[in-house]
Amino acid sequence: MDLKLKDKVFLINGATGGIGRAVCFALKAEGAKIALSGRDEKKVLALAEELSLGPDRLWTNVADVTCEDQVKEFVEGAIAHFGHIDSVLPNAGYEGKWEFASQMSKENYDKVFSTNVLGVMYMLKYGGEALAAQGHGSIVVTSSIGAVVGSPGMAIYCASKHAVQGLVKSVARELGPKGVNVNSVNPDGVYTPMLDRIGRNAMGDEMPIDDLRAALTGGCYDKRAATPEEVAYLILYFASPWASHIYGTKIVIDGANGDGETVRP
Ligand SMILES: NC(=O)c1ccc[n+]([C@@H]2O[C@H](COP(=O)([O-])OP(=O)(O)OC[C@H]3O[C@@H](n4cnc5c(N)ncnc54)[C@H](OP(=O)(O)O)[C@@H]3O)[C@@H](O)[C@H]2O)c1
After folding, report:
1. Contact present, 94 and 14 (Cβ < 8 Å)
2. Does residue 248 have its Cβ closer than 6 Å to ligand 1?
3. pLDDT tens track for 23-56
4. Distance from the CA of 20 to the center of ligand 1, in angstroms?
5. Among this protein's residues, is 125 annotated catalytic?
6. Cα-to-centroid distance, 177 and ligand 1 (Å)
């Protein structure tokens, strides 16, 4: 299937993480142009080297998504470099500390919400403004199954992803009539460093990594997490012209592990 992404300009942050990397390589395979952002310059440069694309196809940026001026510079810099943009992918995220209800802290709340909610909000603000001014484009937010169900020890993360869904639904209604599709992709476990950190937080450092991953994905019909590439291609589909009739919705990719909310076995 031709996703019709050749020469389209994509902005992605959190590009240096597991899903972000997979999106970048999928975009390269589809012939798209990539403006990638990460907060760690060394990781950004290493990823750019691996992607091995010329400046006509790749532009890099260093930004912390919690800083409005840095997100604004990312969007403006990408437009200045490529002349226009076609898709914005707010993808950076943080799982937070493992805290049960009696342990929940403002410190954790501030860090999780500033990354997951403020960070997405700024990308919707500046990316959405630019796309609406052009009269076309798409935004796909990497949300989570945590926007659909709750998870013990991760209430703050789940609350932040529920908030993300409110942003997606509302901004989709504002930007839809201006030619911009806003949607989200909502994974349960994905084989990335985040999944392993969540597992370690929940089950400690002693458990072998394979056992830990098996414990996290035991509820999936196929007894596994998603691969970053599976999530990446869902994101690319939602960003593509094939999804231009879809507004303000989410697609869950969870192996049916969504606590009975996503399917009823
Ligand atoms: N993996 C899963 O099981 C899973 C499940 C559901 C949803 N998700 C969502 O998928 C998205 C991508 O996560 P992932 O699985 O790829 O995890 P990951 O490998 O940990 O990557 C997270 C990325 O976000 C970046 N980031 C975090 N805080 C940031 C900040 N303040 N400013 C800029 N960048 C920041 C990280 O940068 P550094 O590399 O510098 O830390 C990293 O590039 C997240 O939104 C996450 O919530 C993941």
Report:
1. no
2. no
3. 999 999 999 999 999 999 999 999 999 999 999 9
4. 8
5. no
6. 30
Q: How far apart are CA 81 and CA 58, in angstroms?
A: 9
* Any ligand 1 atom below 6 A from CB of 96: no
From ligand 1's centre to the CA of 195, what distance in Å? 10
Q: Among this protein's residues, is 161 annotated catalytic?
A: yes
- Structure-block tokens of residue 84: 């226009």
Question: How far does the centroid of ligand 1 lie from the alpha carbon of residue 45, in Å?
Answer: 17
**Which pTM value belongs to this model?**
0.98
| Sequence-separated (6 or more) residues with CB below 8 Å from residue 63 | 13, 37, 38, 39, 70, 71, 73, 74
Q: Nearest Cα to 78, choosing from 60, 53, 97?
A: 60
pLDDT of residue 258: 80
pLDDT of residue 265: 41
Active-site entry in 126, 157, 191, 237: 157
Average pLDDT over residues 101-127: 98
Share of the chain above pLDDT 90, in %: 95
Residues 6+ apart with CB under 8 A from 225: 188, 189, 190, 191, 195, 213, 216, 217, 255
Which pLDDT does position 259 carry in this prediction?
Answer: 67
Residue 119 · residue 92 · CB < 8 Å = yes
Given ligand 1 and candidates 36, 149, 190, which is best to mutate, with the most ligand atoms within 8 Å of its CB?
190
What is the pLDDT confidence band of residue 263, given thresholds at 50, 70 and 90? Answer: low
- Domains, the chain, in order of start with CATH, read 9-190+226-252 (3.40.50.720)
**Which position among 8, 33, 97, 161 bears the catalytic label?**
161
